[in-house]
């Protein structure tokens, strides 16, 4: 499929386009909901607080935080002011040190009293900022070390780098991937179009928000479509079906190992599965065995759509489509919003069915 021009937006713009600004945007167990209006106000306030701490456009800000509404607001707040560098909060001190150096991080943000290894690895030049939860479900930022002189808030544009992630790629040393606002919003737009996402949809976000799959597929694409995101503390097969019962999500996206863990607990949660069926289930980031896909569709009663993505393409490149279009187990489907082809070593395009290297082009590609 050929490319389709996506709106040139920033991540902050995604929060302003909802037709119903008072509709829920961000939900989480035990936390008050945030509407689109409330989430945007929180993100703008956080961006202003970062500017007051001397953080601004072009600065890279490391975030070491688990999933939850705090991570969502922190990520969006940083991207509305500077460049976010989400990191796995379970890294060891030496791993944090590598990523700080590689991204040239100007600051680190964590929740209060968390991630000792992240703090220990911070260089003396880095500001350390706490994200402090408020009773209304929002956050505030406070520097506990290294605040700089305040600077005016200079809101990033579509061509500014919103986020830096790392990918192993073809080498053992992780490679830095700078993703611009326009790359991320284009990918969110493509995913929304692929699955016909809209305001009636609610995504259950169980993928980590330091990974491109979690950030783009289960956070940004629902927000770009005016739907809601349920953001629990992370994947938990024991609690997953309770979240389904509480929030009634219409879809979720995960890796095959997660799907198999959920299948293992399906029988004891059969009543919830019957009462709250998904509109579709998405699988990505690894190959889904056809036998697992068949079991999922039989037990969960929803189409399972396998997709193919990579960090350098802001996640999704191809996907199996929604019914009634044909989908095929063991394949990654069609390109949505991108041009995909097969190329030989000399750079010549090959006919369909040939063996070669997959190449992709589109506004989501760095």
What's the topology here?
Elements: H1 11-14, E1 24-28, E2 31-35, H2 36-52, E3 60-64, H3 69-79, E4 83-87, H4 93-103, E5 105-110, H5 116-121, E6 127-133, E7 139-145, E8 161-167, E9 175-180, H6 181-194, E10 202-204, H7 212-224, E11 228-230, H8 240-247, E12 251-254, H9 256-264, H10 270-275, E13 280-283, H11 290-300, E14 304-310, E15 315-319, E16 334-335, E17 339-343, E18 357-361
Parallel strand pairs: 1-11, 3-4, 3-5, 5-6, 10-11, 10-12, 12-13, 13-14
Antiparallel strand pairs: 1-2, 6-7, 8-9, 14-15, 15-16, 17-18
- Helix- and strand-based class? alpha/beta
CATH superfamily of the largest domain: ANL, N-terminal domain
Beta content comes to: 15-25%
Q: Main beta sheet: strand number and arrangement?
A: 9 strands, mixed
Report strand order across the widest sheet. 2-1-11-10-12-13-14-15-16
In short:
The protein is α/β, with parallel strands linked by helices. It is built from eleven helices and 18 strands. The chain has a nine-stranded mixed β-sheet, sandwiched between helices.
Polypeptide structure, described:
- With 366 residues, the protein is an alpha/beta fold.
- It has two domains: 33-177, 3-Layer(aba) Sandwich (Rossmann fold), CATH 3.40.50.980; 180-361, ANL, N-terminal domain (Rossmann fold, 3-Layer(aba) Sandwich), CATH 3.40.50.12780.
- It has eleven helices and 18 strands.
- It has helices spanning 11-14, 36-52, 69-79, 93-103, 116-121, 181-194, 212-224, 240-247, 256-264, 270-275, 290-300, and strands spanning 24-28, 31-35, 60-64, 83-87, 105-110, 127-133, 139-145, 161-167, 175-180, 202-204, 228-230, 251-254, 280-283, 304-310, 315-319, 334-335, 339-343, 357-361.
- The radius of gyration is 20 Å and the shape is globular.
- 48% of the residues are buried.
